[in-house]
Design goal:
- This protein is an alpha/beta fold and 176 residues long.
- Helix content is 36%, strand content 14%.
- The chain has a domain of 89 residues.
- It contains six helices and seven strands.
- It starts with a strand and ends in a 9-residue tail after the last helix.
- It binds zinc ion.
- Zinc ion (ZN) binds next to loops.
- The site of zinc ion has 8 residues, from loops.
């Protein structure tokens, strides 16, 4: 899974990428030296600021200008541009908020942190070691997964249909 440095204004895209399991640092990038340091460390930079494209030193570097406005279409753009592959083992492996790798927890360990019906409905739980948020499989997750898979398939099969397909219907954006 690639590592991304995601510029300000792309907060929802950063959550989608974390949902896929990508290592995502989301921050406002203002300084060229800071950006180069990230690029040297293997990060791919995603930005909405066209000004970054004017720097000669950044040519031939993994710096991508995101054109779409809608977060899910932005994600499709990234999948296509970088030819990302869906990895089921990485899906839902990170906290959407902190980027930390989630830890598997037994039911009794998180019993007082989730609603009772959730506790009795699901078998598997994951927790963020930083913010302590608990994640569990749910119907919204299945929907997101279905749309993501459709996006990956479309990106593989065609250069244009992906954006159209993904723009249809309602898709829940990962919540905070
Ligand atoms: Zn967290």
């Amino acid at each position: 899974m690639p590592r991304f440095l995601v510029d300000i204004m792309l907060g929802k895209l950063s959550k989608w990428l974390r949902l896929l399991g990508c290592d995502v640092e989301y921050k406002e990038v203002k300084d060229l030296l800071v950006l180069e340091e990230y690029l040297n460390r293997g990060y791919i930079f995603l930005t909405r600021r066209q000004a970054w494209l004017n720097y000669k030193v950044l040519r031939n570097k993994p710096v991508y200008f995101i054109t779409a406005n809608e977060p899910f279409i932005q994600l499709c753009e990234v999948i296509k541009k970088l030819d990302l592959k869906f990895d089921p083992r990485s899906f839902c492996s990170r906290c959407l908020k902190c980027n930390a790798l989630l830890e598997e927890k037994r039911r009794e360990e998180i019993a007082n942190l989730v609603p009772e019906y959730v506790l009795h409905t699901y078998q598997t739980f994951k927790q963020c070691p930083q913010c302590k948020r608990v994640y569990w499989p749910g119907s919204h997750k299945e929907k997101m997964l279905a749309r993501l898979k459709a996006c990956f398939t479309a990106a593989r099969n065609s250069s244009t249909s992906c954006v159209g397909d993904c723009a249809q219907g309602q898709l829940p954006v990962p919540s905070d």
